[in-house]
Amino acid sequence: MRSNTRTWHQAFWTASTAALLLAAGLAHAQQSAPGKQAPAAAPVTETQARASAILARMADFLGGAQRFSVSLHAGYDAVQKSGQKIEFGDMRKVTVSRPDLMRMEGERSDGVKTLTVFNGKEIVLIDETRNVYATAPQPGGLDDTIVYFVKDLGMKLPLAVLLVSQLPAELKARVRSVDYVERTNIDGSPSHHLAARTDAVDFQVWVADGDRPLPQRVVITYKQAKGEPQFWAQFSDWNLAPALDDSTFLAKPPDGAQKVAFAAQLPRLSPAARRSSADKGAKR
C-alpha cells in the first residue's frame, strides 16, 4: 500500500504546493474578467481588522528579511480511492539569502534525502538516496526562481509563497477573509492564531507575538481537492542572521552520482510519435 500512496502523494504534493503558490499570487484572470462584479464586502469586524493587521505585519516582516534560516516539520494527507487519508511526513531546513540564494535540505518520512540549492546561476537538485542529481539555469532572483522551479520544472517546494519577497502583496491580493481565533502558545511562544480563506484554500497560521512576528505553525485545507486533504507545518529555530559562507550555497553531487534531467526538461513526443512507439512495443 505504501508504494501506491507514496506515488499518489508525490503528485499531490507538487500540485498542492503549486496550488498554494498560484492561489497566493500567480493567476487572477477569473477575478478580473470583464462583466463580473465582485460581491459587496461585508463590514469588517474588530477581530477581523486585528487579524488582518497581524497577518500583514507577519508578511511585511518575513518578506523584508534579507536572510534567514528555519526548520520545518510537516505532515500531509494522501487521500486514497476509498476516501481514507494517509499521512506522510517531511523534515526540512531552509536557508535564504536575498536576492537570489537558497538552500533546502529535506528528508521524507520514508528516508529519502534531498538537497536543493539556488546559487544565483543555476538550480541544483540532489537526491542523495538514489544518488542522482539534476541542474537547470537559474532565471533570476529568488522570487522568479521559485515560480520557475514550481511552475515550469514541476518540482515541490513546501510553502513556497512564504519564501518570496512579494509576500505582502500576494497575501493582500488573495486573502478573501481572515479572523482572529485566539491568543495561545506554540512550543512555549505566545502566538496569535488566525484563520483565513482564499478562493482555493483555507488556511490557519499561528504568528509569534512580539517584535518578531514570524509564522510558528501553518495548516492548509485544499477545499477544492477530493477529500479536502490538509497540509501542516511546524516552524522552529528561526534565525534572522544565519552564518553564511561560500559553502552554504554550494551543492556538490556525491561521487558516482548520475546526472538526470528534470522531467519538464525531457522532450515531449508528438501524438504520432507516441502512437508509433506504442505500435513498435505491441509488435515485440
In terms of topology, how is this protein built?
Layout: H1 2-25, H2 46-64, E1 67-79, E2 85-97, E3 101-108, E4 113-119, E5 122-127, E6 132-137, H3 142-152, H4 167-174, E7 177-186, E8 189-197, E9 202-208, E10 215-221, E11 230-239, E12 258-259, H5 271-283
Parallel strand pairs: 6-12
Antiparallel strand pairs: 1-2, 1-11, 2-3, 3-4, 4-5, 5-6, 7-8, 8-9, 9-10, 10-11
Structural overview:
With 284 residues, this protein is an alpha+beta fold. It has a single domain (2-26, 46-262), classed as Clam (outer membrane lipoprotein receptor (LolB), chain A). The chain is 26% helix and 35% strand. The protein contains five helices and twelve strands. The chain has a twelve-stranded mixed β-sheet with strand order 7-8-9-10-11-1-2-3-4-5-6-12. A hairpin with a 2-residue loop joins strand 7 and strand 8 (189-197). Helix 2 (46-64) packs antiparallel against helix 4. The longest helix has 24 residues, at 2-25. The chain is globular.
Q: Provide the gyration radius in Å.
A: 21 Å
* CATH architecture assignment name: Clam
What is the CA–CA distance across the termini? Answer: 32 Å
Tell me the CATH superfamily. Lipoprotein localisation LolA/LolB/LppX
Low-confidence stretches: 1-38, 273-284
Q: Strand count, sense and closure of the main sheet?
A: 12 strands, mixed
Q: Which range does the strand content fall in?
A: 25-35%
Strand order of the largest sheet: 7-8-9-10-11-1-2-3-4-5-6-12
CATH class (first level) name: Mainly Beta
Give the H and E element order. Answer: HHEEEEEEHHEEEEEEH
Number-wise, the strands total 12
H/I helix tally:
5
State mean pLDDT (0 to 100 scale). 84
What is the third-level CATH name, the topology? outer membrane lipoprotein receptor (LolB), chain A
- Overall SS class: alpha+beta
What is the total domain count?
1
Shape: globular
Helical residue percent band: 25-40%
